[in-house]
Amino acid sequence: MSDSRPAPAHHIAIIGGGPAGLMAAEVLSQAGARVEVFDAMPSVGRKFLLAGVGGMNITHSEPYAAFVGRYAERQAQVAALLQGFNADDLCQWIHGLGIDTFIGTSGRVFPTDMKAAPLLRAWLKRLREQGVVIHTRHRWQGWNADGSLCITHPEGEIALKPEATLLALGGASWARLGSDGAWLPWLQARAVDIAPLQAANCGFEVAAWSQLLREKFAGAPLKNVAMHLAGGAPRLGEAIVTAGGIEGSLVYALSAQIREQINAAGQSTVYLDLLPNRAVDNVAAALSKPRGSRSMAKHLHSALGIDGVKAALLRELTDKATFDDPQALARAIKALPIVLVRPRPLDEAISTAGGCASKGWMMG
Ligand SMILES: Cc1cc2nc3c(=O)[nH]c(=O)nc-3n(C[C@H](O)[C@H](O)[C@H](O)COP(=O)(O)OP(=O)(O)OC[C@H]3O[C@@H](n4cnc5c(N)ncnc54)[C@H](O)[C@@H]3O)c2cc1C
Predict the structure, then answer these.
(1) Among 38, 44, 48, 346, which is best to mutate for testing ligand 1, by the most ligand atoms less than 8 A from CB?
(2) Burial group, residue 56, by CB count within 10 angstroms (0-12, 13-18, 19+)
(3) How far is CA 94 from the centre of its chain?
(4) Residues with Cβ < 8 Å from 94, sequence gap 6 or more?
(5) What local confidence, expressed as pLDDT, does residue 292 receive?
(6) Separation of 302 CA from ligand 1 center, angstroms?
(7) What is the C-alpha separation between 254 and 347, in angstroms, rounded?
(8) Residue 249 near ligand 1, beta carbon < 6 Å
(9) Residue 174 CB less than 6 A away from ligand 1
(10) Does the C-beta of 351 come closer than 6 Å to ligand 1?
Protein backbone atom coordinates (compact mmCIF):
# COMPACT_ATOMS: atom_id res chain seq x y z
CA MET A 1 0.00 0.00 0.00
CA SER A 2 1.48 3.36 -0.97
CA ASP A 3 1.84 6.10 1.68
CA SER A 4 -0.21 9.12 0.50
CA ARG A 5 0.95 11.42 3.32
CA PRO A 6 2.87 14.48 1.99
CA ALA A 7 6.61 14.43 2.69
CA PRO A 8 7.42 16.68 5.68
CA ALA A 9 8.60 20.11 4.57
CA HIS A 10 12.31 20.77 4.76
CA HIS A 11 13.19 23.08 7.64
CA ILE A 12 15.41 25.98 6.56
CA ALA A 13 16.82 28.69 8.83
CA ILE A 14 17.65 32.00 7.19
CA ILE A 15 19.88 34.27 9.23
CA GLY A 16 19.38 37.91 8.27
CA GLY A 17 16.15 39.65 7.32
CA GLY A 18 17.47 42.18 4.82
CA PRO A 19 16.24 42.06 1.22
CA ALA A 20 18.54 39.09 0.44
CA GLY A 21 17.19 36.98 3.31
CA LEU A 22 13.58 37.94 2.64
CA MET A 23 13.88 37.09 -1.05
CA ALA A 24 15.38 33.72 -0.16
CA ALA A 25 12.52 33.17 2.30
CA GLU A 26 9.96 33.92 -0.40
CA VAL A 27 11.46 31.53 -2.95
CA LEU A 28 12.11 28.71 -0.47
CA SER A 29 8.68 28.92 1.13
CA GLN A 30 7.05 28.97 -2.32
CA ALA A 31 8.96 25.77 -3.04
CA GLY A 32 7.33 24.18 0.02
CA ALA A 33 10.06 24.56 2.65
CA ARG A 34 9.32 25.45 6.28
CA VAL A 35 11.21 28.71 6.58
CA GLU A 36 12.24 30.59 9.71
CA VAL A 37 14.03 33.94 9.44
CA PHE A 38 16.19 35.11 12.36
CA ASP A 39 17.32 38.73 12.61
CA ALA A 40 19.33 40.39 15.37
CA MET A 41 17.46 43.69 15.15
CA PRO A 42 14.03 44.59 16.61
CA SER A 43 12.66 44.67 13.03
CA VAL A 44 13.80 43.40 9.64
CA GLY A 45 14.86 45.39 6.56
CA ARG A 46 16.31 48.39 8.38
CA LYS A 47 18.96 49.22 5.77
CA PHE A 48 16.40 48.63 3.04
CA LEU A 49 14.20 51.27 4.72
CA LEU A 50 17.13 53.68 4.92
CA ALA A 51 17.71 53.14 1.19
CA GLY A 52 14.19 54.47 0.68
CA VAL A 53 14.92 57.73 2.48
CA GLY A 54 16.88 59.31 -0.39
CA GLY A 55 14.72 57.71 -3.10
CA MET A 56 14.72 53.94 -3.53
CA ASN A 57 16.41 53.02 -6.80
CA ILE A 58 15.12 49.55 -7.68
CA THR A 59 16.92 48.83 -10.94
CA HIS A 60 17.81 50.37 -14.31
CA SER A 61 15.79 50.33 -17.53
CA GLU A 62 18.78 50.37 -19.91
CA PRO A 63 19.17 47.60 -22.54
CA TYR A 64 20.49 44.27 -21.26
CA ALA A 65 24.01 44.60 -22.71
CA ALA A 66 24.60 47.95 -20.97
CA PHE A 67 22.99 46.67 -17.76
CA VAL A 68 25.12 43.55 -17.47
CA GLY A 69 28.19 45.56 -18.58
CA ARG A 70 28.02 47.46 -15.30
CA TYR A 71 29.18 44.33 -13.49
CA ALA A 72 32.61 44.67 -15.20
CA GLU A 73 34.81 41.64 -14.44
CA ARG A 74 31.90 39.86 -12.66
CA GLN A 75 29.76 40.13 -15.80
CA ALA A 76 29.78 36.44 -16.70
CA GLN A 77 28.86 35.40 -13.16
CA VAL A 78 26.05 37.94 -12.88
CA ALA A 79 24.74 37.19 -16.40
CA ALA A 80 24.10 33.60 -15.29
CA LEU A 81 22.11 34.89 -12.30
CA LEU A 82 20.17 37.37 -14.46
CA GLN A 83 18.97 34.50 -16.65
CA GLY A 84 16.88 33.39 -13.69
CA PHE A 85 15.72 36.84 -12.55
CA ASN A 86 16.40 39.98 -14.55
CA ALA A 87 15.53 43.67 -14.19
CA ASP A 88 12.10 43.18 -15.83
CA ASP A 89 11.34 40.26 -13.50
CA LEU A 90 12.22 42.50 -10.56
CA CYS A 91 9.79 45.19 -11.75
CA GLN A 92 7.06 42.60 -12.24
CA TRP A 93 7.73 41.23 -8.79
CA ILE A 94 7.30 44.71 -7.29
CA HIS A 95 4.12 45.32 -9.30
CA GLY A 96 2.86 42.01 -7.90
CA LEU A 97 3.18 43.50 -4.43
CA GLY A 98 0.87 46.34 -5.52
CA ILE A 99 3.65 48.92 -5.90
CA ASP A 100 3.84 50.93 -9.13
CA THR A 101 7.19 52.02 -10.56
CA PHE A 102 8.41 54.78 -12.86
CA ILE A 103 11.53 55.36 -14.94
CA GLY A 104 13.46 58.52 -14.00
CA THR A 105 15.22 60.78 -16.51
CA SER A 106 18.47 58.88 -15.86
CA GLY A 107 16.79 55.60 -16.85
CA ARG A 108 16.79 54.37 -13.25
CA VAL A 109 13.62 52.71 -11.95
CA PHE A 110 11.92 53.81 -8.70
CA PRO A 111 8.74 52.94 -6.82
CA THR A 112 6.18 55.66 -7.61
CA ASP A 113 6.48 57.24 -4.16
CA MET A 114 10.30 56.64 -4.08
CA LYS A 115 9.93 54.92 -0.66
CA ALA A 116 10.84 51.45 0.61
CA ALA A 117 8.36 51.22 3.51
CA PRO A 118 5.15 50.40 1.55
CA LEU A 119 7.08 47.77 -0.42
CA LEU A 120 8.50 46.19 2.74
CA ARG A 121 5.06 46.15 4.42
CA ALA A 122 3.43 44.40 1.46
CA TRP A 123 6.34 41.97 1.20
CA LEU A 124 6.25 40.97 4.88
CA LYS A 125 2.48 40.43 4.65
CA ARG A 126 2.99 38.11 1.69
CA LEU A 127 5.75 36.20 3.48
CA ARG A 128 3.66 35.69 6.61
CA GLU A 129 0.73 34.50 4.49
CA GLN A 130 3.10 32.01 2.87
CA GLY A 131 3.95 30.65 6.32
CA VAL A 132 7.37 32.24 6.80
CA VAL A 133 8.06 32.77 10.52
CA ILE A 134 10.16 35.82 11.33
CA HIS A 135 12.01 36.01 14.64
CA THR A 136 13.40 39.46 15.43
CA ARG A 137 15.87 40.19 18.27
CA HIS A 138 17.38 36.76 17.53
CA ARG A 139 21.13 37.03 17.02
CA TRP A 140 23.08 34.20 15.46
CA GLN A 141 26.38 33.84 17.35
CA GLY A 142 28.08 31.10 15.35
CA TRP A 143 27.96 27.32 15.79
CA ASN A 144 27.89 25.21 18.95
CA ALA A 145 30.32 22.31 19.34
CA ASP A 146 27.63 19.87 18.09
CA GLY A 147 27.19 21.87 14.86
CA SER A 148 23.89 23.48 15.89
CA LEU A 149 23.30 27.19 15.35
CA CYS A 150 23.79 29.25 18.48
CA ILE A 151 21.06 31.90 18.54
CA THR A 152 20.59 34.28 21.46
CA HIS A 153 17.43 36.29 22.19
CA PRO A 154 16.19 38.46 25.07
CA GLU A 155 14.85 35.42 26.96
CA GLY A 156 17.82 33.13 26.47
CA GLU A 157 19.51 30.94 23.89
CA ILE A 158 18.42 28.45 21.24
CA ALA A 159 20.49 25.63 19.73
CA LEU A 160 18.90 25.04 16.34
CA LYS A 161 19.54 22.19 13.93
CA PRO A 162 17.68 22.98 10.70
CA GLU A 163 18.19 20.85 7.61
CA ALA A 164 19.82 23.82 5.88
CA THR A 165 21.00 27.26 6.93
CA LEU A 166 21.14 30.25 4.63
CA LEU A 167 23.29 33.15 5.80
CA ALA A 168 22.13 36.52 4.44
CA LEU A 169 24.02 38.73 6.87
CA GLY A 170 24.76 41.74 4.68
CA GLY A 171 28.17 43.37 4.61
CA ALA A 172 29.66 45.61 7.28
CA SER A 173 28.29 49.09 6.65
CA TRP A 174 25.76 50.98 8.77
CA ALA A 175 26.39 48.54 11.64
CA ARG A 176 23.73 50.25 13.74
CA LEU A 177 21.13 48.95 11.26
CA GLY A 178 22.24 45.34 11.78
CA SER A 179 25.00 44.27 9.39
CA ASP A 180 28.09 44.48 11.57
CA GLY A 181 30.33 41.86 9.95
CA ALA A 182 30.61 39.94 13.24
CA TRP A 183 30.24 36.71 11.25
CA LEU A 184 33.62 37.10 9.59
CA PRO A 185 35.78 35.17 12.12
CA TRP A 186 33.14 32.44 12.51
CA LEU A 187 33.27 31.65 8.80
CA GLN A 188 37.05 32.00 8.67
CA ALA A 189 37.26 29.41 11.47
CA ARG A 190 35.38 27.05 9.12
CA ALA A 191 38.01 27.59 6.41
CA VAL A 192 35.73 29.80 4.30
CA ASP A 193 37.83 32.00 2.04
CA ILE A 194 37.01 35.63 2.92
CA ALA A 195 38.13 38.57 0.77
CA PRO A 196 38.73 41.70 2.90
CA LEU A 197 35.60 43.81 3.46
CA GLN A 198 35.91 47.22 1.81
CA ALA A 199 33.67 50.19 1.16
CA ALA A 200 31.76 50.11 -2.14
CA ASN A 201 29.49 52.84 -3.51
CA CYS A 202 31.16 55.27 -1.18
CA GLY A 203 32.57 58.79 -1.00
CA PHE A 204 36.30 59.53 -1.13
CA GLU A 205 38.59 62.04 0.55
CA VAL A 206 41.18 64.42 -0.86
CA ALA A 207 44.35 65.17 1.13
CA ALA A 208 42.76 68.44 2.32
CA TRP A 209 40.36 71.01 0.90
CA SER A 210 41.11 74.65 1.67
CA GLN A 211 39.28 76.21 4.58
CA LEU A 212 37.17 78.24 2.14
CA LEU A 213 35.95 75.17 0.24
CA ARG A 214 35.28 73.26 3.47
CA GLU A 215 33.39 76.02 5.19
CA LYS A 216 31.47 77.52 2.27
CA PHE A 217 30.85 74.62 -0.07
CA ALA A 218 30.70 71.35 1.93
CA GLY A 219 27.42 69.73 0.87
CA ALA A 220 27.11 71.73 -2.36
CA PRO A 221 25.87 69.70 -5.35
CA LEU A 222 27.78 69.65 -8.62
CA LYS A 223 24.94 69.33 -11.15
CA ASN A 224 25.25 68.56 -14.88
CA VAL A 225 28.87 67.51 -14.71
CA ALA A 226 30.75 64.51 -16.08
CA MET A 227 33.50 62.46 -14.48
CA HIS A 228 36.06 59.99 -15.74
CA LEU A 229 39.23 58.19 -14.76
CA ALA A 230 42.30 58.28 -17.01
CA GLY A 231 41.53 56.22 -20.12
CA GLY A 232 37.87 55.77 -19.15
CA ALA A 233 34.69 57.06 -20.76
CA PRO A 234 33.12 60.10 -19.05
CA ARG A 235 29.82 59.58 -17.22
CA LEU A 236 27.26 62.35 -16.96
CA GLY A 237 25.53 63.03 -13.67
CA GLU A 238 25.89 64.65 -10.29
CA ALA A 239 28.38 64.69 -7.42
CA ILE A 240 28.60 66.48 -4.09
CA VAL A 241 31.54 68.31 -2.54
CA THR A 242 31.92 67.18 1.09
CA ALA A 243 33.99 68.61 3.93
CA GLY A 244 36.76 66.14 3.12
CA GLY A 245 36.30 65.21 -0.54
CA ILE A 246 33.53 64.15 -2.90
CA GLU A 247 30.58 61.76 -2.98
CA GLY A 248 27.36 61.27 -4.94
CA SER A 249 26.11 59.06 -7.75
CA LEU A 250 28.94 59.81 -10.22
CA VAL A 251 31.54 58.99 -7.57
CA TYR A 252 29.70 55.82 -6.55
CA ALA A 253 29.62 54.64 -10.18
CA LEU A 254 33.42 54.88 -10.34
CA SER A 255 34.05 53.84 -6.74
CA ALA A 256 35.30 50.28 -7.37
CA GLN A 257 37.94 51.54 -9.82
CA ILE A 258 38.89 54.49 -7.59
CA ARG A 259 39.26 52.16 -4.60
CA GLU A 260 41.42 49.69 -6.52
CA GLN A 261 43.68 52.50 -7.81
CA ILE A 262 44.11 53.79 -4.25
CA ASN A 263 44.84 50.25 -3.01
CA ALA A 264 47.49 49.86 -5.70
CA ALA A 265 49.07 53.33 -5.84
CA GLY A 266 47.95 55.23 -2.74
CA GLN A 267 45.84 57.67 -4.74
CA SER A 268 43.48 57.99 -7.67
CA THR A 269 42.78 60.99 -9.91
CA VAL A 270 39.26 61.59 -11.22
CA TYR A 271 38.68 64.22 -13.90
CA LEU A 272 35.67 66.47 -13.56
CA ASP A 273 34.14 68.09 -16.64
CA LEU A 274 32.32 71.22 -15.46
CA LEU A 275 30.75 71.85 -18.88
CA PRO A 276 30.08 68.44 -20.45
CA ASN A 277 27.89 69.88 -23.21
CA ARG A 278 30.60 72.17 -24.63
CA ALA A 279 33.77 71.26 -26.52
CA VAL A 280 37.10 72.49 -25.17
CA ASP A 281 37.65 74.82 -28.18
CA ASN A 282 34.25 76.35 -27.66
CA VAL A 283 35.05 76.95 -23.97
CA ALA A 284 38.44 78.48 -24.87
CA ALA A 285 36.78 80.77 -27.46
CA ALA A 286 34.26 82.00 -24.87
CA LEU A 287 37.04 82.63 -22.36
CA SER A 288 39.14 84.51 -24.95
CA LYS A 289 36.46 87.15 -25.57
CA PRO A 290 37.52 90.53 -24.14
CA ARG A 291 36.28 90.91 -20.58
CA GLY A 292 37.07 94.62 -20.15
CA SER A 293 37.14 95.63 -16.52
CA ARG A 294 35.11 92.61 -15.38
CA SER A 295 36.78 90.26 -12.88
CA MET A 296 37.61 86.73 -14.01
CA ALA A 297 34.91 85.43 -11.67
CA LYS A 298 32.29 87.60 -13.42
CA HIS A 299 33.67 86.60 -16.82
CA LEU A 300 33.40 82.90 -15.98
CA HIS A 301 29.86 83.43 -14.83
CA SER A 302 28.65 85.52 -17.78
CA ALA A 303 30.57 83.70 -20.54
CA LEU A 304 30.12 80.11 -19.33
CA GLY A 305 27.69 80.08 -16.39
CA ILE A 306 30.42 78.84 -14.03
CA ASP A 307 29.91 80.15 -10.51
CA GLY A 308 29.34 78.93 -6.95
CA VAL A 309 30.88 75.58 -6.09
CA LYS A 310 32.07 75.00 -9.67
CA ALA A 311 34.03 78.28 -9.68
CA ALA A 312 35.38 77.55 -6.19
CA LEU A 313 36.62 74.10 -7.26
CA LEU A 314 38.25 75.58 -10.35
CA ARG A 315 40.11 78.10 -8.15
CA GLU A 316 41.00 75.39 -5.65
CA LEU A 317 42.50 73.02 -8.20
CA THR A 318 44.28 75.34 -10.64
CA ASP A 319 47.07 77.92 -10.31
CA LYS A 320 47.26 81.56 -11.40
CA ALA A 321 49.08 80.73 -14.64
CA THR A 322 46.19 78.49 -15.71
CA PHE A 323 43.68 81.23 -14.90
CA ASP A 324 45.64 83.68 -17.06
CA ASP A 325 45.67 81.38 -20.08
CA PRO A 326 42.25 80.80 -21.77
CA GLN A 327 43.41 77.59 -23.47
CA ALA A 328 44.78 76.11 -20.24
CA LEU A 329 41.73 77.24 -18.28
CA ALA A 330 39.43 75.66 -20.87
CA ARG A 331 41.32 72.38 -20.53
CA ALA A 332 41.00 72.59 -16.73
CA ILE A 333 37.25 73.26 -16.98
CA LYS A 334 36.85 70.19 -19.19
CA ALA A 335 39.07 67.87 -17.11
CA LEU A 336 39.66 69.21 -13.62
CA PRO A 337 41.87 66.70 -11.81
CA ILE A 338 40.81 65.77 -8.27
CA VAL A 339 43.30 63.58 -6.40
CA LEU A 340 41.57 61.17 -4.03
CA VAL A 341 43.60 59.52 -1.29
CA ARG A 342 41.22 57.33 0.70
CA PRO A 343 37.62 56.05 0.76
CA ARG A 344 35.28 57.19 3.50
CA PRO A 345 35.01 54.64 6.34
CA LEU A 346 33.32 51.31 5.56
CA ASP A 347 30.53 51.95 8.07
CA GLU A 348 29.28 54.88 5.94
CA ALA A 349 29.29 52.97 2.66
CA ILE A 350 26.16 52.11 0.70
CA SER A 351 27.47 48.61 0.06
CA THR A 352 30.36 46.36 1.03
CA ALA A 353 32.84 44.75 -1.35
CA GLY A 354 34.61 41.52 -0.47
CA GLY A 355 33.28 38.77 1.79
CA CYS A 356 32.82 35.08 1.07
CA ALA A 357 34.98 34.18 -1.88
CA SER A 358 34.74 30.39 -1.68
CA LYS A 359 32.63 28.63 -4.29
CA GLY A 360 29.14 28.08 -2.97
CA TRP A 361 29.36 31.08 -0.64
CA MET A 362 27.96 34.39 -1.78
CA MET A 363 27.57 37.67 0.03
CA GLY A 364 24.83 40.29 0.03
C1 LIG B 1 22.14 55.24 2.48
C2 LIG B 1 21.89 54.01 1.62
C3 LIG B 1 21.17 54.12 0.44
C4 LIG B 1 20.96 52.99 -0.37
N5 LIG B 1 20.22 53.12 -1.51
C6 LIG B 1 19.96 52.02 -2.26
C7 LIG B 1 19.11 52.11 -3.40
O8 LIG B 1 18.58 53.17 -3.73
N9 LIG B 1 18.92 50.97 -4.13
C10 LIG B 1 19.48 49.76 -3.78
O11 LIG B 1 19.26 48.75 -4.47
N12 LIG B 1 20.25 49.65 -2.68
C13 LIG B 1 20.50 50.75 -1.93
N14 LIG B 1 21.28 50.64 -0.81
C15 LIG B 1 21.93 49.34 -0.54
C16 LIG B 1 20.97 48.31 0.07
O17 LIG B 1 20.38 48.85 1.23
C18 LIG B 1 21.77 47.04 0.40
O19 LIG B 1 22.40 46.59 -0.78
C20 LIG B 1 20.86 45.92 0.92
O21 LIG B 1 20.23 46.33 2.11
C22 LIG B 1 21.69 44.65 1.16
O23 LIG B 1 20.80 43.66 1.54
P24 LIG B 1 21.24 42.40 2.39
O25 LIG B 1 20.00 41.63 2.69
O26 LIG B 1 22.35 41.70 1.71
O27 LIG B 1 21.90 43.00 3.73
P28 LIG B 1 21.27 43.93 4.86
O29 LIG B 1 20.17 44.77 4.31
O30 LIG B 1 22.41 44.59 5.51
O31 LIG B 1 20.60 42.89 5.85
C32 LIG B 1 21.37 42.02 6.65
C33 LIG B 1 20.51 41.61 7.83
O34 LIG B 1 21.22 40.63 8.56
C35 LIG B 1 21.03 40.87 9.94
N36 LIG B 1 22.15 40.27 10.66
C37 LIG B 1 23.48 40.53 10.51
N38 LIG B 1 24.20 39.77 11.35
C39 LIG B 1 23.30 39.00 12.04
C40 LIG B 1 23.43 38.01 13.06
N41 LIG B 1 24.64 37.62 13.53
N42 LIG B 1 22.31 37.42 13.54
C43 LIG B 1 21.09 37.78 13.08
N44 LIG B 1 20.90 38.73 12.13
C45 LIG B 1 22.00 39.33 11.62
C46 LIG B 1 20.97 42.37 10.06
O47 LIG B 1 20.30 42.78 11.24
C48 LIG B 1 20.23 42.76 8.79
O49 LIG B 1 18.83 42.88 8.98
C50 LIG B 1 21.49 51.73 0.02
C51 LIG B 1 22.20 51.63 1.22
C52 LIG B 1 22.41 52.74 2.02
C53 LIG B 1 23.19 52.59 3.30
Answers:
(1) 48
(2) buried
(3) 20
(4) 58, 101, 111, 119
(5) 86
(6) 46
(7) 19
(8) no
(9) yes
(10) yes
The confidence score (pLDDT) of residue 93 equals: 98
Within its chain, how far is the Cα of 310 from the centroid? 26
Domains of the chain, by residue range, sit at 57-114, 204-343
Q: What is the DSSP letter of 241?
A: E
Closest CA to 130 of 7, 23, 46: 23
- What three-state secondary structure class fits 315? helix
The residue whose CA has the least distance to atom 31 of ligand 1 is 18
Look at residue 3 in the predicted model and tell me its pLDDT. Answer: 66
In contact, 339 and 346? CB cutoff 8 Å? no
**Number of the ligand 1 atom closest to the C-alpha atom of 183:** 41
pLDDT in tens, 28-80: 999 999 999 999 999 999 999 999 998 899 999 999 999 999 888 889 999 99
Q: Which range, 5-14, 257-266, 285-294, is most confident? A: 257-266
For 159-180, write each residue's pLDDT tens digit.
999 999 999 999 999 999 999 9
Angle at 301 between CA 299 and CA 304, to 5 degrees: 90
- Dump pLDDT digits (tens) for 94-126: 999 999 999 998 899 999 999 999 999 999 999
Atom number in ligand 1 closest to CA 138: 43
